[in-house]
Design brief:
The protein has helices at 19-28, 39-44, 56-65, 69-77, 87-90, and strands spanning 9-12, 34-36, 47-50, 82-84, 93-96, 101-102, 107-113, 122-127, 129-130, 145-150, 152-156, 164-167, 171-175. The chain has 181 residues and is α/β, with parallel strands linked by helices.
């Protein structure tokens, strides 16, 4: 494997996301990412990140408008690392409650809205309960706190792959590394 400094890591730009925050986090670890909506660059990347903030229907429309839906699916089919953050993870599933919209359908399962009795969005620090080990959590103990801002959560069809959950009035999947995703 190549040194992380020479890896081509692309952040998908589809006008929905915290692109600069993701880029700065990578730069802190010596990675110089490319922010792009060019499908050729995405397909040639060593790893791809799909960040996201906002509405799933709008994000899917933006991906469609930029002709990125098929290239994302093609890239994932290549078996190279793909990382969906927040809405970016939600978009990988089949369908979302938000606007009863179809998503990319790369991961079997759906996206559900947090219960109506809860303050939404779930915003603030909350702990994770690690269900199984994974390299992404190396050095992070169960009970560690992460910052959350969301109104929806993923419900994978294959629940045995859930790596961590969080309790916010109901227990939901908070980390789901599926294969190389």
């Amino acid at each position: 494997m190549r040194d992380r400094h020479s890896l081509q890591i692309s952040i998908i730009d589809y006008d929905s996301g915290n692109l600069r925050s993701v880029a700065k986090a990578l730069e802190k670890y010596g990675v110089d990412p490319i922010t792009t909506s060019d499908s050729d660059i995405i397909l040639k990347s060593d790893a791809v990140i799909l960040p996201g903030v906002g509405s799933a229907p709008s994000a899917m429309q933006a991906l469609s408008n930029r002709n990125l839906i098929e290239p994302i699916k093609q890239y994932i089919a290549l078996g190279k690392p793909f990382f969906g953050i927040c809405l970016g993870l939600q978009l990988l599933f089949n369908k979302t409650d938000e606007g009863d919209s179809d998503c990319l359908g790369v991961i079997s399962g759906n996206v559900r809205q947090l219960s109506s009795g809860l303050k939404v969005p779930h915003m603030g620090w909350n702990s994770i309960d690690i269900k199984k080990t994974h390299p992404i959590l190396e050095g992070i103990p169960s009970g560690e706190f992460f910052y959350f801002v969301h109104s929806y959560f993923v419900v994978p069809q294959e629940s045995g792959d859930i790596t961590a959950t969080t309790d916010y009035g109901e227990v939901f999947c908070s980390i789901y590394p599926k294969r190389i995703i």
